[in-house]
Write a structure and sequence with these properties.
mainly alpha, about 70% helix, two-stranded antiparallel sheet
Length: about 325
């Protein structure tokens, strides 16, 4: 019960406050602390033959997970019993849940898009996606923001809470390490393909069930649940990611738009298949509709956590 209650408390604190800018200016954020350690290891170890890079990347992956998990386990062991322990655990879980931050970043795209200010929308999109926003038109900006919202609803909210419910503070800390590793070194390019291969595969495994749960949350709060479930089953297996297509496919079908498709990364074009491809491109108002769906899905997730915590008392 305590692990579920801690995750519920962490979600509620994050939804209310996010991670305040003043706090970030003073102490940074646990993910940036871990990111600094991963970056230092990558600079030192990502060299030599492909076999050496694979081995060094695996060591970096294991080391980063241990660096996050061991302190979390010690902190959890030191928590008092009862309500005070749950509250302290919720405060410790809070910075590892990104529900408010994700909403704020996507809202920063929605507002200028709706106002017709594509330049401001491009600046906001550049904060949340890796593709070149200068080459995105209005529909492309909308797709980028909605895809980021759908995928990161899983990576930034559902998955950390899921692993926190499974294993408490060590579980949520281990997941955030895995996800940070993937975002930093799990790329399919010349520099990271070998060094980040283990991290990328571990991230795929860690996100397998949470991604599908996120898609189900979107479907259950949608006005078109059958269409969402159908889109996930039909389109998600063709997505470039083994996991992201599930929440993205459900989001696309719920909104009645198409997502994914061909996109530009640097000087290369990735010819990706469409999700819900028979539907039109998103319009300026669809990012706001996606945010409303996200809020309903997160509220449903909080309700499920509350019911689970109550059942385990």
């Amino acid at each position: 019960m305590s692990a579920v209650a801690m995750m519920l408390g962490g979600l509620l604190i994050d939804a209310a406050f996010g991670w305040p800018d003043r706090l970030y200016a003073r102490i940074g954020h646990p993910v940036t602390w871990l990111g600094s350690a991963i970056a230092a290891a990558e600079r030192r170890l990502n060299r030599g033959s492909r076999a050496r890079r694979l081995w060094s990347g695996a060591v970096t992956c294991a080391g980063a997970i241990a660096l996050a998990t061991v302190p979390a386990a010690l902190l959890q062991a030191a928590l008092p019993d009862g309500a005070m322990g749950v509250l302290l655990g919720a405060l410790l879980a809070w910075p590892l849940i990104a529900a408010r931050s994700l909403h704020d970043h996507v809202s920063a795209v929605a507002r200028p898009l709706l106002a017709g200010d594509t330049n401001a929308a491009r600046r906001a999109v550049s904060m949340i996606v890796g593709r070149d926003p200068a080459q995105l038109d209005e529909a492309g900006l909308g797709r980028a923001a909605i895809e980021s919202l759908a995928e990161n609803a899983s990576d930034g909210v559902v998955a950390p809470i899921f692993w926190g419910c499974v294993a408490g503070l060590p579980g949520i800390a281990a997941y955030k390490a895995i996800n940070t590793l993937d975002s930093m070194i799990g790329h399919r390019n010349e520099r990271y393909e070998a060094f980040g291969k283990v991290s990328a595969r571990v991230d795929d495994v860690a996100n397998w069930l949470p991604a599908r749960l996120t898609g189900l949350l979107f479907a259950f709060v949608s006005t078109r649940p059958r269409a969402c479930l159908s889109a996930m089953r039909r389109d998600a297996p063709a997505h470039r990611s083994p996991n992201a297509g599930w929440p993205e496919g459900a989001m696309a079908a719920s909104l009645g738009i198409r997502l994914s498709g061909p996109r530009v990364y640097g000087e290369s074009v990735a010819d990706e298949p469409w999700l819900n491809g028979a539907a039109p491109d998103p319009g300026p108002g669809d990012v706001g509709r996606a945010l409303a769906l996200y809020r309903r899905a997160m509220a449903l997730g909080a309700l499920v956590l509350a019911l689970a915590a109550a059942a385990l008392i």
